[in-house]
Amino acid sequence: MPPAYGDNTRPSRIGWPLPPFYWPYERDLIHPKAAELEERSIAWIDAFGLYPDATERAWGLATRSADMVSRIVPFGEVEPMLLFSQWCYWAFAADDWQDSGTGPARTAAVADHGARMIRTLEVPGSGLLPPGPYTAALDDLVARTREMLTPEQLHRLTEGLRDWILGAAARTAAEEQGVMPGLNDFAATRVSVGATRFLLTWCDIANGIHVPGEVLYSAPVQALTDAAGFIVACDNDVFSYNKDDHQEPLEQNLVNVLALHHGCTAAEALPAVYALRDRSVTLFARLREQLARGADEQLARHLDSVEHWVSGDTAYHDGALRYASPRNRNALPVEGASFDIAWSDTPSDPSLEPLPIPALAWWWQQLDDSSR
Q1: Per residue in 189-230, pLDDT tens?
Q2: Given CB 3.0 to 4.6 Å as the disulfide criterion, which of 66, 137, 192, 270 pairs with 85?
Q3: What is the rounded distance in angstroms from the CA atom of residue 234 to the CA atom of residue 218?
Q4: pTM for this predicted structure
Q5: What pLDDT is stored for residue 98 in this prediction?
Q6: DSSP 271-338
Q7: Which is nearest to 145 in space by CA: 205, 69, 64, 63?
Q8: Residues of the chain with pLDDT > 70: what percent?
Q9: CB 196, CB 284: distance < 8 Å
Q10: Considering only CA atoms, which of 39, 26, 38 is closest in space to residue 65?
Q11: How far apart are CA 229 and CA 281, in angstroms?
């Protein structure tokens, strides 16, 4: 069924239905233990009293984090997937709790709270966060994460969290300026804002993948990581648009950035969003094929993992009630709401040329002569 807009219906600025999503790989995979992961995650949420009342709990569960993890890690090990799912539920709860104040978050607050979170992961028991259910739940996550992960995995996860916090602070700083950023400035931090490296670290952990640092952090693999993160970010900005369209000034979303860039409406900017996305998918496919040619088993599995993350995230957003029945239009999530997306086998923009975005153009520089 189409997204539910409640009693106070107002038109979507980007129109309906959404255009098809181009993806040349497998789609709609889901882990066979998805229902178990959701049940166990919800039991953990309730044990810590993460939500103050039934309404907040309903909206918290509407994030469908267990479904997300089950789609982006369709072949993973259950116990690390469970911990990953609980981290995601906690992050959504903490984010929504922070957003529920009387005014927008300030850069100083985001940076301060983020630094305390990072240090809590690095040094448990630091006593840097105020007592309460969010801190108690985080302490539990940290203890179990440190027990499960190797030192190298923990370092990678911490750096992923640090990158995420830096992106959030940069975005908040831009919002404080009260001016919609230009396309290049927006794109430069969007991958970090989307928690790309934090999430992909968990995907590798849950899949039991270990890629040596000299390979994982090589320029071509990092370009693939960034491209995947940008594709996911484009999709998120489309799916979440209606959820945040009540904000004044308008949210810093790729749709709004491109509308300003092209001097058009949000609906008129939507094809430009898909063009950037689909050209990034084409680059991803070429670079993935190049890396696969010389890949050992671990890198080959990592490439699969990144691929599953992108397609799984798109499929997750399709039926996540947080987006399909947005809170600014509904008193409670509407069961069964969905975007009913369609997939496409061909890109909306078939160009092989680099995107006209200097902060992203380096991805194409990682293609060897046989891939150009």
Answers
A1: 999 999 999 999 999 999 999 999 999 999 999 999 999 999
A2: 66
A3: 24
A4: 0.95
A5: 46
A6: HHHHHHHHHHHHHHHHHHHHHHHT--HHHHHHHHHHHHHHHHHHHHHHH-HHHHS-TTT-SS--TT--
A7: 205
A8: 95
A9: no
A10: 38
A11: 11
